[in-house]
TrEMBL record:
Organism annotation: Candidatus Synechococcus calcipolaris G9
Pfam families for the chain: Peripla_BP_6
Lineage of origin: Bacteria, Bacillati, Cyanobacteriota, Cyanophyceae, Synechococcales
Keyword line: Signal
InterPro entries assigned to the protein according to its UniProt record, in alphabetical order: BCAA_transport (IPR051010), Leu-bd (IPR028081), Peripla_BP_I (IPR028082)
Protein name per Swiss-Prot or TrEMBL: ABC transporter substrate-binding protein
Keyword Signal in record: yes
Length: 404
């Protein structure tokens, strides 16, 4: 597992390498029970390797833009916000390790992460027990904020987002009657999202003709697809992660399915395009973010993101930016009340958790706040449709519907 620290303070490579060689992580101050006086360390635990890196890489871009943006605005009462990044990999053990390192070695004030709900159910209890606030940037399964009082999220739960997409599919094709569902049974998010989809299908009096189970590591879906196509569905709904979902879509089309496909949050990344290529064209995806949202904070975020990465931000980038923004704004409020460097770290973590839950934030996702439990209250949701370019590798989500 690699440790990367990206400050924008212009550290030279030799310093960086020297610090890594000493096992300290770059420019890490020696452990103290106070936040260091010139910067405040915020942990970021995201998947940079393994199958969830397709999401995690977009999220890291979001936190990088946030760190720069916040420090350009003056940081936290004159001190800079310094992100400590740990690669969680894509499994539970990696997330647990990353959390432990950030909590005990880097002595962060809070953590943005992990990438998958599947990881969160293992890693979050560790932060909760240590009294370290966690904001999940992309955990959408039911039950995440309920893990503990220190756990909240800026990623709207599947229960809120998924039904919107089903309604959009029916609007496009009102005669849909026979619906098939696929889900990755070894992933907490995929199971949770599929339950919601299946309930919504029944609530709409549609026929749920089959429920097929897959694994996130699967690359061949021929058996499940053949079973499904024999039943003549007019809509197929997928709850998977990105690589498995992308391959599944490609094989559905290769095996002759021509009807509508609706994907869940696992297909919300542009990194899925090179996997499913032109076969992704037309797939519907429910989204908790739209780059087209005209709120001032989103306009600023979009500009900063495009300047830094020459591409349009997608949902995982916007959510990760938002998680850092919430931490930073809560810290700014606390810093106006007292000298944060004089607070013992455990007290600062506790106060930060209380403060962030109380706030109201103007973010790229729109205005948001939290329930006392840490569940996000978000107003706007969207349905995007994948539109692939001629090259069959790049594409975009075009906005089909918004709740604005
Ligand atoms: C979760 C998700 C994934 C699809 C995105 C990272 O929503 O694991 O909760």
């Amino acid at each position: 597992m690699k440790i990367r620290r990206f400050t924008f303070l212009g550290l030279g490579l030799p310093v960086l390498l020297g610090a890594i060689a000493l096992g300290l992580g770059a420019c890490n101050s020696p452990p103290t029970d106070r936040a260091t006086s010139d910067s405040i360390p915020l942990g970021v635990a995201l998947a940079q390797s393994g199958n969830a890196a397709l999401f995690g890489q977009e999220a890291v871009q979001g936190v990088q833009v946030a760190e720069r943006w916040i420090n350009e605005q003056g940081g936290i009462d004159g001190r800079s916000l310094r992100l400590a990044l740990q690669d969680t990999g894509s499994d539970e053990a990696g997330a647990v390790n990353a959390f432990q390192t950030l909590i005990n070695r880097d002595r962060v004030v809070g953590i943005v992460g992990p990438t998958l709900s599947q990881q969160a159910f293992s890693a979050d209890p560790i932060a909760d027990q240590a009294g370290v606030p966690v904001i999940a940037p992309s955990n959408t399964a039911a039950g995440i904020p309920q893990i503990g009082e220190f756990i909240s999220r800026v990623s709207a739960p599947v229960a809120v987002v998924a039904p919107t997409a089903l309604a959009a599919a029916l609007k496009i094709k009102p005669d849909i009657q026979r619906v098939a569902v696929f889900f990755a049974q070894d992933d907490a998010f995929s199971r949770s999202e599929s339950e919601i989809f299946q309930q919504s299908i029944r609530d709409l009096n549609l026929d749920l003709v089959t429920v097929q189970q897959t694994q996130t590591s699967d690359t061949d879906f021929q058996t499940q697809i053949n079973n499904t196509l024999n039943l003549n569905p007019d809509l197929i709904v997928l709850s998977t992660l990105a690589a498995d979902g992308g391959n599944l879509i490609r094989q559905l089309r290769e095996l002759g399915y021509e009807g509508l496909i609706l994907g869940g949050n696992g297909l919300n990344t542009m990194n899925v395009f090179p996997v499913c290529r032109r076969f992704c064209d037309g797939v519907l995806v429910a989204q908790a973010y739209s780059p087209a949202y005209e709120g001032a904070m989103n306009v600023a975020f979009r500009q900063a993101f495009e300047a830094q990465f020459q591409q349009t931000p997608s949902q995982f980038s916007a959510q990760a930016f938002t998680a850092v923004q919430v931490f930073a704004e809560a810290l700014q409020v606390l810093a106006r009340q007292e000298d944060l460097s004089a607070l013992p770290l455990d007290e600062l973590r506790q106060k930060l958790n209380q403060q962030l839950l109380m706030g109201r934030y103007e973010t790229p996702l729109g205005e948001l706040s939290f329930s006392p439990e840490g569940e996000i209250d978000q107003k706007q949701f969207y349905v995007g449709q994948i539109q692939m370019d001629e090259d069959g590798r790049t594409g975009r989500f075009t906005l089909l519907q918004s709740t604005d």
